[in-house]
User: Which sequence fits this backbone?
C-alpha cells in the first residue's frame, strides 16, 4: 500500500501544480445554531491537509455530513465545517457550492499552489452511495476530472478512516481511477488495530457499550475467543441480564437477541462481566429523579440508563493491570448529566491502564471530549467507530482493500 510519504518522496518533495483529491472525515455534529459542536474529526484531518499544502499541492477535499437522501439539504451542508477548518488550519478554505458541478469545476480550476478547496457534501450526489456500480463510477469520474486526471498530476489520498468500511464513490471508486495513497490518519488507525488483532499483550480487556446487542453481536463473537475479559455496559447489557432471567423493567431490550446472549453466556460466561448495579429513572431528563438498584432488581417501569458506582468499581478492577484495552460504546446516556457518571468512571479507568488503550471512535470518542477528559491519557482515539468494529470482526474494508491494488 502506497502512503502519502511515498507520493511526496516520488515527487521529489514538491507537489507544485498538482491537484490532489483528499477524502477526509469531517462528519461532525452541528449545534442548533449551525456551528460545529465537536471538532475532533476536523482536528484529526489537519496533519495530512497541512502536509500536502506545505509541499505546494492544490488540495481538493471531499467529505460527507450526516445522511442526506442524495440531494442538497441545507441542514447537512459542509459550510460550517469549511469555516471551522479555515480557523484550525490558519489558512483560507475555498468552498464549492456543489460536488462536481459548475462551482466545483470553476474553483478547482482556479486553485493555486498551497490552496485548499472543500467540496459540498458528497452525499448530496446520489452517485456517492448508489448500489449501482455504474452510477457510482460516473460520480467518481466527475471527481477525477476536478484534478485534471493522472496525466495532469492528479492523485487521490484516502484519509477518512471513518468511511473506509463504505463502498462509496469518493472512498472506493475514485481510487480505481487515480494513483492512490494511504493518508497518515488511515495508516495510523490500521497500525493500532493490527495490534489488537495480532498478538495483543495480555491481559487483553474489551469494554463494549452502546444501545444494541444486534449492532455488536458479530464483533462480540469475534473478540470473545481472543480476550481475557469482556465488560458489557450501556443499553445492550439489559438483553444479557434478561438472558439470565432477570427483570429489566422498561430498559432497552432486544427480545430477539435474548437467545444469542444466553448462548454467549453459556459459551463464554467466565469472560463476560455484566453490571452489578444500574441507575434507573422513569424518563431521560436532566432533572429526572434517579435511584441506583442492583442489576437484578430493576423495578417495573424503571429504565436502566447508566451503570452504577459498584459496577464502575468492578469494571475498573478488571481493567487494572490490563496490557491491552479496547473500549467502544458509552455505559449510559452520557449526554444527560444524571446518567454520565458510569461512562466517565469507566473512561478514566481505561485511561489509567498502563498498557495500550484504544478508544474505538463514535460515541466513545465524543464522550471523552464531552466529559472533559484528557485525550492524551489514551493511547489512541479512533475516528471511526463503525470501521474499527468491522476491522475487528475481520471484515474487508473496501476503502482499504482498494488502496492495496497497484
Assistant:
Amino acid at each position: 500500500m502506497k502512503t502519502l510519504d511515498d507520493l511526496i518522496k516520488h515527487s521529489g518533495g514538491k507537489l507544485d501544480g498538482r491537484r490532489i483529491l483528499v477524502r477526509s472525515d469531517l462528519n461532525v455534529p452541528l449545534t442548533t445554531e449551525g456551528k460545529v459542536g465537536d471538532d475532533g474529526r476536523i482536528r484529526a484531518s489537519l496533519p495530512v491537509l497541512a502536509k500536502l499544502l506545505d509541499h505546494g499541492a492544490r488540495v481538493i477535499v471531499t467529505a460527507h455530513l450526516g445522511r442526506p437522501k442524495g440531494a442538497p439539504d441545507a441542514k447537512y451542508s459542509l459550510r460550517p465545517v469549511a469555516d471551522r477548518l479555515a480557523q484550525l488550519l490558519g489558512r483560507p478554505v475555498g468552498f464549492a457550492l456543489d460536488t462536481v458541478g459548475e462551482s466545483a469545476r470553476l474553483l478547482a480550476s482556479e486553485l493555486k499552489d498551497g490552496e485548499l478547496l472543500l467540496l459540498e457534501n458528497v452525499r448530496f450526489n446520489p452517485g456517492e452511495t448508489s448500489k449501482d456500480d455504474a452510477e457510482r463510477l460516473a460520480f467518481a469520474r466527475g471527481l477525477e476530472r476536478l484534478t485534471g486526471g493522472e496525466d495532469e498530476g492528479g492523485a487521490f489520498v484516502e484519509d477518512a478512516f471513518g468511511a473506509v468500511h463504505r463502498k462509496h464513490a469518493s472512498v472506493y471508486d475514485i481510487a480505481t481511477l487515480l494513483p492512490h495513497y494511504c493518508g497518515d490518519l488511515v495508516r495510523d488507525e490500521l497500525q493500532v488495530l493490527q495490534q489488537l488483532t495480532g498478538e495483543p499483550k495480555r491481559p487483553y480487556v474489551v469494554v463494549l457499550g452502546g444501545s444494541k446487542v444486534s449492532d455488536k453481536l458479530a464483533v462480540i463473537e469475534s473478540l470473545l475467543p481472543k480476550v481475557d475479559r469482556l465488560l458489557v455496559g450501556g443499553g445492550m447489557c439489559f438483553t444479557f441480564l434478561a438472558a439470565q432471567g432477570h427483570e429489566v423493567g422498561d430498559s432497552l431490550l432486544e427480545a430477539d437477541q435474548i437467545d444469542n446472549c444466553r448462548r454467549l453466556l453459556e459459551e463464554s460466561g467466565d469472560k463476560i462481566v455484566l453490571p452489578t448495579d444500574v441507575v434507573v429513572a422513569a424518563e431521560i431528563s436532566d432533572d429526572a429523579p434517579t435511584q441506583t438498584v442492583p442489576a437484578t432488581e430493576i423495578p417495573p417501569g424503571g429504565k436502566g440508563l447508566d451503570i452504577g458506582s459498584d459496577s464502575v468499581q468492578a469494571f475498573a478492577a478488571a481493567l487494572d493491570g490490563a496490557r491491552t484495552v479496547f473500549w467502544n460504546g458509552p455505559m449510559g446516556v452520557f449526554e444527560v448529566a444524571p446518567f454520565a457518571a458510569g461512562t466517565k468512571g469507566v473512561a478514566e479507568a481505561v485511561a489509567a491502564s498502563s498498557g495500550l488503550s484504544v478508544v474505538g471512535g463514535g460515541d466513545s470518542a465524543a464522550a471523552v471530549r464531552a466529559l472533559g477528559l484528557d485525550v492524551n491519557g489514551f493511547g489512541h482515539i479512533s475516528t471511526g467507530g463503525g470501521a474499527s468494529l468491522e476491522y475487528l470482526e475481520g471484515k474487508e474494508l473496501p476503502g482499504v482493500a482498494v488502496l492495496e491494488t497497484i
Q: What stands out?
A: The CA atoms of residues 249 and 302 lie 5 Å apart. The longest helix spans residues 40-54. The chain has a mean pLDDT of 95. The radius of gyration is 23 Å.
